[in-house]
Amino acid sequence: MSASTAEIVLNTKTLRWSHPDQFDDTLDVAQVCDEKMDNNKQKQIQDEIINLAANYPANRKKNNNKLFKCLASLISLSGGDKTSAISELKKGPIDISNSIAGINECWARNIRDDFRILCLGIENNNHRLWNDYAEAYKGAVIELVCREESDSPWRIAKPVEYVKEKELFLTAKDWAVAMSLETSAAAYYIIEKCCLRKAKDNEHKWFEQNEWRIPSFCRHYETGKVSDYGVNPNDFSAVYFGHKMDSETQDNLLSLLVGELGHVSAFRCELDSSQNISFRKLK
Predict the structure, then answer these.
(1) Residue 3 contacts residue 136 (beta carbons within 8 Å)
(2) Inter-axis angle of helices 66-76 and 39-54, to 10 degrees?
(3) Residues 6 or more apart whose Cβ sits within 8 Å of residue 237
(4) What are the boundaries of each domain within the chain?
(5) Is 35 in contact with 104 (CB distance < 8 Å)?
(6) What is the spatial distance between Cα 147 and Cα 197, in angstroms, rounded to a whole number?
(7) More confident residue, 27 or 158
(8) What is the pLDDT of residues 249-270, one digit of tens each?
């Protein structure tokens, strides 16, 4: 992050979770689920739903999705001849348009504008991140620790999956899983799938960021596209200053590592002739 953002984070002990509209990549997160779905993909989804229904354990918690429950019941009635039942079901069309429409409506009405994402990295020596987000080494990296006894949200962070642009949105199997759930649960399932996929394009090379994310939601009273959530001071572990940060800015940030943040270590980034990053401890 920039030095000015680092000052805000350390002063307020908050981190910013943002709506994808604020991201620097327009293909980052799907703003709609799948408006244009051809017959071939619908058939693939139908077959995947039937496969899921065939393997649905009888002892699993009751599923209230009508379509999925009906398919599972039909297959179970076949007794030991499940293969024939599955084959027959796949021959005929199953109307999934209402399920698709319901999930899309839930996404647009209750989900799309309200979810927020915290973007994290797992490397403090990633040149791409230092250049793109830390003012070309004039900024800082703030390190968070995942304490075992803590309920810190970064413990549930997951890595971004970098995929081809055509695979960016939901696959047939994703849709099938979503349609095996109730509408609200399906929408939440889709959020994670959309939030954790990013196009692996050769121009921007986003995969070099090696990013991890945590999806969440804004609070009911919030407006706008960002949400600032508090951080337990004990979750701050270290601050790394870029090698181009001026001494006055560095001293100002160092002065904030007192009181609740007195345990936080501080390091200065250094680059050798081969551009390898190392860190010199300051505190």
Answers:
(1) no
(2) 60
(3) 143, 144, 145, 264, 265
(4) 3-22+114-160+196-281, 32-111+165-194
(5) yes
(6) 27
(7) 158
(8) 999 999 999 999 999 999 999 9
pLDDT in tens, 162-187: 877 766 667 788 888 887 887 777 77
The model's pLDDT over 67-121, given as tens digits with 9 standing for 90+, comes to: 777 777 777 777 667 777 778 777 777 777 777 777 777 777 777 788 899 999 9
- Are the C-beta atoms of 18 and 117 separated by less than 8 Å? yes
Give the other-Cβ count within 10 Å of 257's Cβ: 19
DSSP assigned state of 214: E
CB 53 within 8 A of CB 72: yes
Counting beta carbons within 10 angstroms of the beta carbon of residue 17, is it exposed (0 to 12), middle (13 to 18) or buried (19 or more)? buried
Distance, CA of 280 to CA of 238 (rounded, Å) = 12
Nearest to 155 by CA among 235, 48, 222, 69: 235
C-beta atoms surrounding 258 within 10 Å = 9
Please count the residues of the chain.
283
Please give the DSSP secondary-structure letter assigned to residue 236: E
